[in-house]
Amino acid sequence: MSAAAAVLRRLTFSREVVLLGVLIVLMIVMSILSPFFLTVNNLLNTSRFFVEVGLMSLGMTLIIITGGIDLSVGSNLGLSSVAIGFSFAAGLPLPLAIVLGLVVGTAAGLFNGLFITLLDLHPLVVTLGTFALFQGLAYGATGAEAVSDFPGWFAYFGQAYLGPVPGQLFIFIVAVVMVWLILSRSRFGRYVYAIGNNEEAARFSGVPIRRVKIAIYSGIGLLVGMAAVIYTSRVYTARGDSGLGLELDVISAVVLGGASIYGGSGTIAGTVLGVLIIATLRNGLTLAGVPSTWVLFVLGVLLLVAVFFNEFFRVKEE
Amino acid sequence: MSLSDDTGTERAATVAEAPTVFRLLNVTKRFGGVTAVEGVNFDLRPGEVHALVGENGAGKSTLMKMVYGLYKPDEGTLEVGGNVVEFSSPRDAEEAGIAMIPQELDLFPELSVTENLFVGRHRPRTSWRTLDRNAMRAEARQRLHSLGVDLDVTTIVKRLSAANQQIVAIARALVGEAKAVVMDEPTASLTEREVQQLFGIISDLISGGVGVVYISHRLEEIFTTSDRITVLRDGHHITTASTNELDAEELVRLMVGRPLNELFTRSPHRSGEVTLEARGLSRAGEFEDIDFALRQGEIVGLAGLVGAGRSELAQTIFGIRPPESGEIRIDGEEVRIHSVQAAMERGIFYVPEERRSQGLILPFSIKNNITLSILDRISRLGFVPRAERQTADRFAKELSIRGASISDPVSRLSGGNQQKVVLAKSLAREPSILLLDEPTRGIDVGAKSEIYRLIDDLAKEGKAILLISSELEEVLSMSDRILVMREGRITGEFKREVATQENVMTAATGGESRSTLNGSRKEASKDE
Amino acid sequence: MSEARAPTEGRRVSRGEVLRRFMVRPEAPALVFLAVLVAAFSLSSDKFLSGTNFESIVISVAVLGIIALAVNQVVLCGEIDISTGSMMGLCAVAAGAVALSTGGLILPLLAAVAVGALCGAINGLLVTAGRIPSIIVTLGMLYALRGVILLVTGGTWITGVPNEARVLGTGTVLGVGYPVIILFALFLVMELVSRHSTWGRNVFAVGGNRRAARFAGLPIDRVRVLAFTLVGVFVGIASVIYMGRAGSVQTNTGTGLELQVVAAVVIGGTSISGGRGSSLAALTGAVLIGVILNGLVLLGVPGIWQQAVLGALILLAVATDVLRRRLVEGKA
């Protein structure tokens, strides 16, 4: 191995530091591209956008650490959003409708978890199926219509401020702290890493593998439900195609944050930085007048580059 | 004793004159800072069976991987047929006539026997340029037949028995007109009869002038089949000698550096109440109608050949899979053990056979490996307390785990210390019933004797211990009572005082002792 | 020697054995399901089994089926490709653009195939040389290529494709539509290649046991790159058929197609883990999807439910595969 690669390897040892550096560089670039970028107003507004992706990425981190994946999160968001809007339109009091949204999101995740564990199937193909199923259910149940007349207070979730800071940012911060605690300090988190590194040895050590897997897929379902509430409140509309394509952002954020797509490693800090980087990219490019078409392209390429560097610099064992 | 028809001296002379099939001269191989093999010489002559022995980690597979083109020697040379060569891939080795059959049998489970023989090889074609499947099948049949076996060559390989899969692997290795075949633990999953069949095949191979490298831990087999033995220890070449110049005790001494009987610790213990009882336990295809009892403070050895169903039985008791019929009783009460958690709740713990893939999470620290089984007990409100470290430390000290601090990844430890970590994890759970599956396999002597002492101490504390082992000496020396399994059933039970190598082996092999079977095979081959 | 038998020549095989051998084949459940569905639909609606209806079903899934035949090879060697929807859009754009400027059929076809092969090759190289898992590569490419489409077309549709370029979509030979002919022709080609070419056999080995394939000296990277490139070629051909039928190319052409393709492959019986399956499975899966969607229309189910049905089918297919393995084959 060349000296340069060895030095690089030592640097990436602290992946979070590298990511922070990338984020700072990116912010500098974006502020050059547009004078509006580095204003407090803009930054705080950006945080609105990334909370939804961020919440889902927290859950996706645990799933990817166990070596799994969930392609259905975007569709699940649409389904949960539709559950909120259309149950409300059908007469359910809005607070209950919100709860229903959370329930639907969690139930969808639970469905994934049960299918994967009870039938011992690969998460890839199951969540590919539920990706279609959830989206299809959302479309079918709503006839591709939308619900928009919510009472004023509903905007609180997605559009309010607590002081100068957007309300949902607090929710996100609380969620980050909680998931971080779970992953790094609790026995559940230890189980997650164990399963991702050597599932068979975990089984022989008494780790309740099925229960853990069902929990993480249900957990991301709950996070998706929360994201659906915030999103629906922010755009003030419930539509079947909400969340379309978000799985790309979510998976990219987790992978960018350092998690190996093969499982076994990943951190919340890394994921959060990944989310920030993607949000900065999206926001900065849009402000600079780059058409949204380019943004998709850049995200796709970013994902490829992120995984490539991940695996390239990861220590390879014989 | 060797497998050919010629008398010993005539054969020795023929073998000694012929040029070597291949030769490794003074080879060294390093991985990072670790030297796997250093200054080793090894050669294979045509028509000989050359056994390669040594404990796990001695360097046997590294050495053979250099012959097979998977590794390049850092120092030293490889010669094939007298010419120095350098292989960059297994393909090169195969073209030079060297074939390897790894323990995992690199076969393609979804493809037929015929397809397996032809993967990566030239396939016969019809005049239409399509594959001539009839010709392929005919050739496959013929190759199997020359190994003395007839199979339906259209069978998908995953449906074959372990022995037949092995034969397909051998046939595949020979398709390239191999001059040397390296077999790595070939008898690991075979029944006794299948082992004899394999010896017959090897016998035919060598009379055709092929050289066979036989890597195995099974000393009895080595003495039956090989002409020469090379011993490696810790990556160094200890000796190469004719088989008839060595005996088992001396061989072990060369392998481990210490005579056998110094290893074992055995103090008298008193057995208490019956704590674990199995009645009529069965699982189709694994074991049938198992009845036995374990007492507190008792060490029961479970002997038998690989494939007898011992690990499967222990794993069923540990809740990895449920029994299909029969019952398990703990302290007289019938229990249903449907999960590992349930087994652990009942005070049972199983130390698995495969340390690296089943017993440890290699990237985890030593501490995290040890506490993995007790996280539910030590965590408060779901969180792991800092006191975890003290607990892990305590076990690390008790078991004398050396070589790294408990925050280091367990992959850094030697095999013996890794095994101690696995044991620490099981002891952390404070089980009253311990199922140990090959607890001393592939570890150095020092660690072995430490583990024997530990097992002895555990029995003194009143734990009930089931000791599964393929090493007869170990079973005979450590157990209060010996159970023997063969092909899924219990075929013998011996109290310590009356157990001998003979009667245990007889129960394990079904009453056909090796020497007579070998003799009859020799007779048969003379007739052909 | 528990499985030793008499030589197989002239061995009489029992009917139970034949049935078992059939049921064990990867395509069996899909074929059976297809037969059952065809029977059910033709009983409930007279329109179903008419020649024109059946042909229209096959035409509607020709694009799907052609791409599925190629993605089948990718799945067989242990990888996956979910970029085909965007790939098809891009190939159709290329074909349309060339058709509008130069006319004819050959040049647009060549353009589509070239663009497809290039995209496929990029996928293959990223997976092999880049050592990036194929799910990630093709997920990234799915979005990246969609962006490229919008970039290249500037958001405008391609309309008014000349008739001669639309032949593969609209023309007929002896009364049978070109799409059907091409589908079956490519099916035969893939069957031949899969059974009789070295690459075809290697695909099974690489997907069945990658480690053993490496030790056997198989050129694993080359096998996979070829598989991905083949997808691109077939997508190119399919895109010209699509363009022929639609007469125009939109910026969202092909959206969602990748899911249907993977569904076809999986529903047809090819195992998602690799090493097991066949071209017949891919074809059956595509036809099955066509029959189901057609049946839904006949039953009056609104098209908005199609996505849900597709998802449910995928889940059903993989669940059935697992259950069937446990029942018919027993534990391996």
- Helix % of chain C is over 70%
Shape of chain C: globular
Low-confidence stretches of chain C: 1-10
Structural class of chain B: alpha/beta
Q: Identify the strand order in the major beta sheet of chain B.
A: 6-7-8-3-9-10
Report the biggest beta sheet of chain B as strand number plus sense, adding barrel if it closes.
6 strands, mixed
CATH superfamily of the largest domain in chain B: P-loop containing nucleotide triphosphate hydrolases
CATH architecture descriptor name of chain C: Orthogonal Bundle
Share of β-strand residues of chain C = under 5%
**CATH level-3 fold name of the largest domain in chain B:** Rossmann fold
Strand sequence of the main sheet of chain C, in spatial order? 1-2
Tell me the structural class of chain C. mainly alpha
Characterize the structure shown.
Chain A is mostly helical and 318 residues long. Chain A has helices spanning 3-12, 15-33, 40-65, 73-89, 94-118, 123-142, 155-159, 167-185, 187-197, 199-204, 209-235, 246-256, 268-287, 292-313, and strands at residues 146-147, 161-162, 165-166, 238-239. Chain A contains 14 helices and 4 strands. In chain A, helix 2 (15-33) packs parallel to helix 13 (268-287) and helix 12 (246-256) packs parallel to helix 14. The two termini of chain A are 15 Å apart. Helix content of chain B is 36%, strand content 23%. With 332 residues, chain C is mainly alpha-helical. Chain C has helices at 15-24, 28-44, 51-76, 84-102, 106-128, 134-153, 167-170, 178-196, 198-208, 210-215, 220-246, 257-268, 279-298, 306-329; strands spanning 172-173, 176-177. In chain C, strands 1-2 form a two-stranded antiparallel ribbon. In chain C, strand 1 and strand 2 (176-177) form a beta hairpin. Chain C starts with 14 loop residues before the first helix and ends with a helix. Residues 1-10 of chain C have low confidence and may be disordered. At the A-C interface, helix 6, helix 12 and helix 14 of A face helix 6, helix 12 and helix 14 of C.
